[in-house]
Amino acid sequence: MIRLKVNIAGVGMIKVSEHWDKSIVDLATEAGLRALEDANVKHVDYLIISNMSGVFNNCQSDLAVAIADNLGLLRIPTYRVDAACGSGGAAVNLAYNIVKSTGKRVLVIGVEKLSDSVTTVNTSSMMLAEDWTTGLVSGGTFVSLNALALKYYLTRYRANHDKIMMLPVIEHKNATKNPYAQFRREITLDMVKRSPYIADPLHLLECSAYGDGAAAVVLDVNKGNVEILASEVTTDAFRIANRDNPARFNAVFEAVKRAYSKSKITNKDIDIIEIHDAFSITGVIALEELGFADFGEGWKLISEEKIGLNGDLPTNTFGGLKARGHPVGATGIYQIAEIALQLRSDAGDNQVDGARIGLAENIGGIATTAVIHILRKKEMI
Amino acid sequence: MIRLKVNIAGVGMIKVSEHWDKSIVDLATEAGLRALEDANVKHVDYLIISNMSGVFNNCQSDLAVAIADNLGLLRIPTYRVDAACGSGGAAVNLAYNIVKSTGKRVLVIGVEKLSDSVTTVNTSSMMLAEDWTTGLVSGGTFVSLNALALKYYLTRYRANHDKIMMLPVIEHKNATKNPYAQFRREITLDMVKRSPYIADPLHLLECSAYGDGAAAVVLDVNKGNVEILASEVTTDAFRIANRDNPARFNAVFEAVKRAYSKSKITNKDIDIIEIHDAFSITGVIALEELGFADFGEGWKLISEEKIGLNGDLPTNTFGGLKARGHPVGATGIYQIAEIALQLRSDAGDNQVDGARIGLAENIGGIATTAVIHILRKKEMI
């Protein structure tokens, strides 16, 4: 089997915000056009759209064709992929597999439009990502399930919650320099601690917020200076209750193991990472599953010195889900686009000097789906 | 590029019905298990789920993982694909591309659960397939848009509506022998003509009905006696208003042209077909786009002699969308499973003698997405 190399030939993003004046199709189109322009291409062979809640919030199925039409990209194979909050990563994984085996060029656009939605029942909308039949109907919400994970983690590992609450503080600092970030202002540990509980022990400022956004990447075998070394997606028990330890993300562990193995690198080779901090706790657990800390000790890594923009392992360098924003189906693509910008040395004020290899971790539900991408700067010869 | 041959190694279906006692996950699981059993395999490398309205009607995103978990198929790449009513065909197309280029085995399950839904606003639910922003808000429904196409067709081509109304009559006859069909009773032309208008000039009995269902296929490079000769998906203008002729399905025309070209066959080689008769008129237009009649003359083909089970070109041999049923995201997979049963000579009372090559036409929206599959019986050597 011939297996081609796959590059990121172009990226495009819009600011995560409440885009009251634009439709879901408008947002996706804008990001898509920017990625095509960045890649300096007009034609692609496939269009893949990642989105979670468009059928629920925007009453639009066949969304991929609506976007294809607006982009002038009809008459090519077009699909929409949904894996909840992991949709973006899953769509890039699918595109990666298509490009790797066919040599065709693929445009992937992730988009989510949560404000100005038809249904405006956003708690329900987020719970779409978890088991509806045993979850929401028994009183669980997406926030409360993550709060339980945090409570469990704090108790079992005697972790310091203050340390964990530094994650959003560091991320907000990174976001101040990101023109596409939802929240471009610094926050302090004190502000996080004094912010109201959304679901005890999770504070408001430990949670990513609702936001509209779109991000896009062009994958190609020839063009582009950033190579995708590995792309892995796997899944875990759908119901949290069926897992041994609610503070473990087995799917992330498994996906990253495969990604390290296939790319023949270890976590020691990684210069920068993007972790899926939908909540502070999900970011902490990610650090452990990715191999950067022992289980139960990820919280000890949360400091400027360790994961700040100038730290040992710069993490969520553009603000992460908390501060750049978490437009669900687009999030995984923002992550990959941001890593690509870093490896291209196009990260502007957020640039991490000498970044050569980056890793993006994107999850759907509470790590029900896990997607790992490892990207490498192509060396000039 | 090595391009492997792709076979249908197994199929599984459940009866299209109102399954009040089963969840969307239950339905998909049942069809999936039947396909695995039929293929005599336990393991697959990928799981692809096709579904349109699960996020809307069943409040479940990440549906693919819910089904994977129930099937005991965790820890493999899993995606959900949506292309409205064309989701099933699009998912098989995606699976085909994966198998063809990787040699891996893929299980594709299409499922839709419309009864007992959380929202129960089924007219809205169907309109998800069309442009929400300019369609439904200006008074269009999915039925009324198809009624306009029928009215236009009848006027422009001076077509005989009675002939067109024979399509459901023939299909209901075929469905009487299909254990998985939603409506296993015969109807007469008189019954169709006297059934109430749903949207003038479309009668109730010219429209497919709401139904829950699930169908599955296993694709494999080694196993299976039916080969997929061609799998093509393409798209057309999202808004009907932007098309030159509302009685033409350009995407179907384009997709089938590519499919004939790639498989090196013509419409003369086709023994049986499945057409996407969501409404009588969509079936008639399909016959024209597929090359079996000139434009504006497809209605002349609608007779037992021509498209009946013992006719020149047996069509929708298990009842089609009208009588077998149209569980949206599953429909394209029922079509392919039924063609496969015919080519395997496993069609029981519905068997078409000597069927060697079959074609399935599946559309999303009003042919916004079009998917064509051509299947061939593998000759024993």
Tags for this model:
homodimer; two-stranded antiparallel sheet; 14 helices; Peroxisomal Thiolase, Chain A, domain 1; 381 residues; alpha/beta; 35% helix
Protein described:
2 copies of one chain form a homodimer. Chain A has 381 residues and is an alpha/beta fold. Chain A contains 14 helices and 11 strands. The first copy, chain A, has a 9-stranded mixed beta sheet with strand order 3-2-4-7-1-8-11-10-9, sandwiched between helices. In chain A, strand 5 (197-199) and strand 6 form a beta hairpin. The mean pLDDT of chain A is 93. At the A-B interface, helix 2, helix 3, strand 3, helix 4 and strand 8 of A face helix 2, helix 3, strand 3, helix 4 and strand 8 of B.
Overall pLDDT level of chain A? 93
Q: List the secondary-structure elements of chain A in sequence, H or E.
A: EHEHHEHEHHHHHEEEEHEHHHHEE
Q: Domains counted in the coordinates of chain A: how many?
A: 1
For this structure, the quaternary state is: homodimer
CATH topology of chain A: Peroxisomal Thiolase, Chain A, domain 1
Question: Could you give the count of β-strands of chain A?
Answer: 11
Rg of chain A is 19 Å
Helix content of chain A: 25-40%
Q: Please, what is the CATH homologous superfamily of chain A? A: Thiolase/Chalcone synthase
Q: What characteristic shape of chain A results from the CA principal axes?
A: globular
Q: Strand fraction band of chain A?
A: 15-25%
CATH architecture of chain A: 3-Layer(aba) Sandwich
Most extensive contact: A-B, 65 and 65 residues
Main sheet record of chain A: 9 strands, mixed
Poorly predicted tracts of residues of chain A: none
Q: Output the number of helix runs of chain A.
A: 14
